[in-house]
Amino acid sequence: MSPLSSTPTIDRQPPSAINEHPSGDKRFKVLDITMKRNQYRSDALIEVLHKAQEAFGYLEEDVLYYIARGLKLPLSRVYGVATFYHLFSLKPSGAHSCVVCLGTACYVKGAGELLAALEREMGLKEGETTPDGQVSLVTARCIGACGIAPAAVFDGRVAGKQTPESVLAAIKEWLPDAAS
Ligand code: FES
Question: Fewer CB within 10 Å, N- or C-terminus of the chain?
Answer without folding.
Answer: N
